[in-house]
Design brief:
This protein is α/β, with parallel strands linked by helices and about 425 residues long. It is built from 14 helices and 17 strands. α4 packs across α11 and α5 runs parallel beside α6.
Length: about 425
Amino acid sequence: MMNKTISLQSLKEKAKQLDQSDKLASYRQKFLFPQHQGKNVLYFTGNSLGLQPITTKEYILQELEDWAKYGVEGHFYARHPWFSYHELLTPKMAKIVGALPEEVVMMNQLTSNLHFLMASFYRPQGKKRKILIEFPAFPSDVYAVQSQIKWHGGNPDEDLIMVKSERPDFVIEDEKIISVIEKHKDELALVLIGGVNYLSGQVFDIAKITEAAHKAGSYCGWDLAHAAGNIELHLHDWNVDFAAWCSYKYLNSGPGSVGGIFVHQKHLNNFDLPVLAGWWGTDKKERFKMKPIFEPMPTAERWQVSNAPILSMAACLASLDIFDTTTMSDLSQKSKQLTTFLEETLEFINDTFGKKIFNIITPENRGSQLSIVCNVDQPKNLFQSLINNGVIADWRDPNVIRLAPVPLYNSFEDIYNLALVLQNILPNYV
């Protein structure tokens, strides 16, 4: 039976009211939207690739101009010298993930960084050889931990613990993860989990799981690909050992752009902790003296191996400068409002058609994403129809659509307009 408290008109009025009271509304004008029939698309895939800030071209062009002007001397004479360019990003990124500046550095890409960090923090000894991850984890994480286990002479069939949901919505209770950690405490060397599950959109309790891992005598690391720039993080206060993330999703720095890492302060002066060394991790005062001995820096910069990819860092800086004018608290508050309004909109659609067309599997502990099971005969065709009508969403087999309304650039009107598109196309599928 249709919920009489929700109507298309009430959704429209609520969207207008929410947009008028949104103190972040002007940020939408800082981004470039793809076009569909002369209008902005309804873009709900910031969890896959964020939109381009308008200033990105300017930031990259500055480095291209300095390259043309200075050549190799740009490392020291560019307007933002390339030798220290990554340092421009550090304090801004540290603020976003709740870290001290010395605990953060932008470098490489996500899975590469996970490997570099596991080289330091996955040190199997005796019985303590196992790695625990969630299921489903993002496939690249699975491949990375499997290969690390093999690299150390182990067997993934024996040394990889995957905590699986027993629910149809893929949600894994934090308590279940903690109980599995406790069960395997004598065998566990590393816990490595996605802060926000890529498929369900569930946000895990990072602080509690980290504490449980430490009680079990293991390190605890986090893949924050879907968390950095999306949810409030307090990595230092939560005592996380290490974390890695990409910057092309919620951090809007462009396809394949530079990643980032966090290493807790408590590890930074432990020079017995092994690293895969490269010249950009050695003492920056001594770097160009070309010494044959590695002199590690007492910061997260120690994990760098190569000089900075300036053009992708310039794109990243353009976005971080936008983040630097607001707070993750304000972004998180709007995110909750957006997903709540999206949930109401999907409930309206279900009521309109008198059946459960969309089943939301994302729990209340979430960021800017709702994962939705489509209960129609041809769900992939429905998804393609959304694309054809100017709605950019994300598909996961066999029948999940991920919608991510991002607080920096999505409006509540976007969600109302999604309802109009769904009302128009759904008669072809129900």
